[in-house]
Amino acid sequence: MKKSDKDRKLQREGWPKYVFVTGGVLSGVGKGITAASLGVILKAEGFKVSIQKCDPYLNVDAGLLNPVEHGECFVTHDGKETDLDLGHYERFLDFETNKYSSVLSGGLYQELIERERSGGFHGKTVQMIPHFTDLVQEKIEKASEGSDVHIVEIGGTVGDYEGPSFIEAIRLFANRVGRENCLYVHVVYVPWINTSKELKTKPAQNALRDLRGFGIIPDVVVCRTERSAPRSICEKIAAFSGIPGEAVLNLPDIESVYDVPFNVLKSGVLQILNRFVGTDTEPNMAQWQEFSELRSKKWEKTVKVGLVAKYVGNEDAYICVTEALKAAGAWNHVNVDIEYLNAEMVTDEDFARVDGLLVPGGFGARGAEGKIKAATYALEHDKPYLGICLGMQMACVAAARRSGKGDAGAEEFGAKPEERVICLMDGQDGKGSTGGTMRLGDYPAKLKKGSKVAGIYGAIDVVERHRHRYEVNQKFLPEIEQGGLVISGTSPDGKLVEFVESPSCRFFIATQAHPEFRSRPLNVHPLFGEFVGSLSE
């Protein structure tokens, strides 16, 4: 792939190209998927792409956000707790984000205050401009290191009270790197009014006016609609907004988010992107096309997975898990039907009607007994079981109870010291803060030679991401093994249990880690692939 002399000069100077994605009208309009899809296209053209989320929330990170409101907490390889958009980024671009890929206002304020308290500003008045906006720009530059193109999604909606400083920061960023090296993409919603049977462009016009009020005229406007819009709608928005008609694109709702990159390509954005990056290359989307075809095909066999969880009203709370299952189904040539089983009221009849059980990670006592019940049922009825984090801990409690220790439990749930099969990790006791203090990010594990899990990985040395504060109490290993499980993986020093499995079940594997964070549509995690494969046997 040839790049222009201008691009080569920019790379020698250390400046990648920057794509900024903002949103208007309402939140949840699809900025993250649009940003990730642009990244897919640029990566398919041969560019090295990185991506970042800047969120105006006053939280320091996403670790304490309620999953019901915000969806699951995603964890980067270096231990940053982020919102679920970074999971979308990793799945779409098949690369690892890092601690610089997620920026929240609270973390920036904390950093500025700590700098001020230590005398770092030498007595100057600390202000939103330039100090906060400069720090945002520093984080953008840091996250873009080593990339050809860096994409930045600004969370929320233009006009939100929390957001102006971020919008100002990306406006000023063009002064830093050159306006020609910045592409501004504004995603707006165009509602369908059923009573009058028409699409209304006024909210989008107002959202564009808000953005212009901050000094940014977008290069691309993406109109999100529930159905395909006539070209006249895009032309109307262009006419009332002072933007070229060819730069206003329509992206209607479609069944699968993994088809969005193809919709983005069809919208006419490629010419704009190629002009921006200085190439005329056609993206190679062959792998995405193969996955899209597998994903959309209706296979002869359908397998039903029972997801035993406490957040059953919000699919985003376990989105990495469900996306990993669906991708595993596509590559195993089976349809995957996911049934949410409320852990607080689940019964053996619920377990019996599904082909396999998956107990995901979580915190708190609510629903714990249902998860123990699920592991017990799987052990006693040879029901395929995949336990993740808390799902492994509850499996160990279930095994200990099966050995005769009926009072076995977890310290987190109030078990007495002599009952604690699951206990607080060394170094966690006495921590005054619950945010960002767990065992987070990538940690190595040593698998037992000849174990089922070693066979699945095809290795005995593996690395997985973690997010937990409690661990298996090794004093209870005899009871756990007597109850039907063997320890098939530990930390390299042998002090922490990382994997357990049942030798007598066709598939019963549980891990302290979160393998769903490393599963990709084009590169499914082996545990998910084998679990789904076992359901169709």
Can you give me a brief rundown of this structure?
The strands form 5 sheets. Strands 13-12-14-15-23-22-21-18-19 form a 9-stranded mixed β-sheet, with helices on both faces. A 7-stranded parallel β-sheet has the order 5-2-6-1-7-10-11, sandwiched between helices. The chain has 537 residues and is of the alpha/beta class.
Description:
The protein folds into two domains: 5-290, P-loop containing nucleotide triphosphate hydrolases (Rossmann fold, 3-Layer(aba) Sandwich); 300-535, Rossmann fold (3-Layer(aba) Sandwich). 36% of the residues lie in helices and 21% in strands. Helix 2 (31-44) crosses helix 10 and helix 15 packs across helix 16. The chain has a nine-stranded mixed sheet, sandwiched between helices. A seven-stranded parallel sheet has the order 5-2-6-1-7-10-11, sandwiched between helices. A three-stranded mixed sheet has the order 16-17-20, covered by helices on one side. Helix 9 (231-241) links the parallel strand 10 and strand 11 (248-252). With 537 residues, the chain is of the alpha/beta class. The protein contains 19 helices and 23 strands.
